[in-house]
Amino acid sequence: MSALPTVWVFGDQLDAAHPGLAGPRDVRVLMIESAALITGGRFHRQRLHLVLAAMRRYAEALRECGYAVDYRRAASFHAGLTAHLREHAPSEVRAAEPMSHGMRAWLQARGVRLLRHERFLCHYDDFRAWAGGSRVLRMDAFYRARRRATGYLMDDGEPAGGAFSFDVENRKPPPRKPIAWPTPLRDELDALDRAVLRDLPDAAFGAAPDGTWATTRAGALRRLGHFIDEDLPRFGPHQDAMLHDPWHMAHSLLSPYLNLGLLHPREVCDAVEAAYRLGAVDIASAEGFLRQVLGWREYVWGCYWLFGPKYAASNALGARRPLLPLYEAPERTRMRCVRDALDSVSARAYAHHIQRLMVLGNLSLLAGVQPRALADWMRYSFIDGGEWVMGPNVIGMALFADEGRMSTKPYAAGGAYIHRMSDACQRCPYDPRARVGDDACPFTTLYWSFFAQHAPRFEKNPRLRQVLLGLRNLNDLTETRARAAHVLRGLERGEI
């Protein structure tokens, strides 16, 4: 009797419908906790806990379903695979297509058979066909194409509500009067959770988990239902706003489950569609969230594979500054918007998309932080971090380091934007309207200094015409740039 073939399941492929487990249970499942990976970066404690606890629970579920599971804790993937091959001598090793360039090359070099993985609604081969030979891509064109291809929020070939985008309705500042925001679900931690926490490396940072993040598919499904019923009706109008409390507002908190395979984007999009058709949510909220899942998430995934591994080294603006110290020591900054975002990261490995893009990413853009340094920090720090997630989002969107391949202009903003979209400025010692002086908002000062530095590069960009016109009309540019130099020195010391 020949040995069983092996299906290697990775920690970010905990799918209910894994392609290697679709047939009879005549395979052996291999899962490896790699010490080299776990200790290879300064990971947030909750991120490591989520992945390891979810892996161990997935292995338990497979055993209950009758699979033979070889769950190994090894020094590295190489060591774990070598030991597995020595002990079981499988007829073949199979794996679903992995989630990174490096792992794909590593598996192919070892003769592992890769199975097509339908974890996304648009496979990267299909994305490549859509992109054609275009060097510059735009998410909105991709999103419209995917709406038509999938039929989500479409009526007889036309977009529901008469438009593909309801961005205008979905960019409101925080509500002036307090509203009742839903409370996120929590689970009780158990013996398995406690065992995982004991196994985490000493270098892990951040607060211990409190049950906010589910580690099973059942828990992820409960959170999907909670979001659709409680949060989605409130999601749209204020999705770009930032509040100190509540930290999550009406955001879904579903991205880690999508990224680990505990949820599939199709079931998320189906739930949004059903809520809209039942009249439980308006078109602006339904479309706004669908755009995040069917639009940006799928677009980022496709761009990661299309652009290739060299994309991670992109640095079109020549940014050279190391990661700012305040990202790892937020208690030293007086900027309330930055402190709020970083405190949330420390407490729960989370900050929503505007805090990531328009606060943390914006600050690194204006300060000239090395793209790879910020991408790595976000990959290690966020509950939904991943190479494919943070690469394009940081390099292409936040830092405009790819010369506009993903977006039409840098997402740069001064203090006025943060003042309009958050409640942070009223608690901050800095004045968002001021460019110069000791109380000038660092964002405002650095915003004008950034465009003064890069004006020749952007002078032909029509979306920046008004900004550059305003720059030419500044009567205190010299003083602003001098203040910017002072701010940058302070940021390098972590004291602004």
Describe the protein's architecture and organization.
The protein has 496 residues and is mostly helical. It folds into 3 domains: 6-115, HUPs (Rossmann fold, 3-Layer(aba) Sandwich); 124-191 and 215-307, Serine Threonine Protein Phosphatase 5, Tetratricopeptide repeat; 320-493, DNA Cyclobutane Dipyrimidine Photolyase, subunit A, domain 3 (Orthogonal Bundle). It contains 19 helices and 7 strands. The chain has helices at 35-38, 45-64, 77-88, 101-109, 124-131, 139-150, 191-199, 217-235, 255-260, 265-277, 283-307, 336-348, 353-367, 371-381, 387-398, 415-421, 442-458, 465-472, 477-493; strands at 6-8, 28-34, 68-74, 93-96, 113-115, 154-155, 158-159. The strands form 2 sheets. It has a 5-stranded parallel β-sheet. Helix 4 links the parallel strand 4 (93-96) and strand 5 (113-115). Helix 17 crosses helix 19 (477-493). The chain starts with 5 loop residues before the first strand and ends with a helix. The model has no long low-confidence stretch (mean pLDDT 96).
